[in-house]
Amino acid sequence: MTYSLYYAENSAAMGVRVVLEELNQSYTLIPTSIDRDIPRAPEVLALNPNGWIPVLIDNGKSIYECGAIVTWLCDRHPDAGLAPGVDDPARGHFLQWLFFFSSSLQNAYQMSYYSDRFCDTPENEASVKRRSITRLRELWQVVDDAIADNDWMLGDEFSAADIYLFMLTTWLSPAHDHPRVEEFANVHRIANAVSKRPSVQLVYGTGPA
Fold first, then answer.
1. How high is the pLDDT of residue 208?
2. How far apart are CA 64 and CA 190, in angstroms?
3. Of 9, 126, 148, 157, which one has the greatest count of Cβ atoms within 10 A?
């Protein structure tokens, strides 16, 4: 089995690639531009009308939305233990955090990086960007409080939720006046632990300090 992944550096596709590495699955990368000044390729739009990546291809079938791809891959390869099974009491929290990351947190980042999509006029973009900063701080604090003294997002067991957390911490940008990951001690601790995994070293390099 070989998957194909529409891929670009600094995109959510990097998190999916880490998951594929953790699952020890064969895959090919399809380089994809995410440059805002370049129209999305018709091939990408045909697979995801929103123009976003990642898009995963398996046996000619496509799936998009990072959280959905991660869940689907973990369920398809359960022996890797990257997600609790459907009968595991921890399953609810696993899905909770994947949905939280893919909706609430990613939306807050979009307010920074794509602020024009959240307002009618250019004059309002600065306000959207300011709100994105406070929103990111609020949401990461929610995550930090929930982690408490757990080793990982779900407690004692590493999961794909920790990979997702790490991916999102790499999007924090001083250039956008985002909070620093070090402001959230528990988030930083988990992100640092994830950064040491061979899969992350391969995809990201050294990761956060």
1. 43
2. 26
3. 157
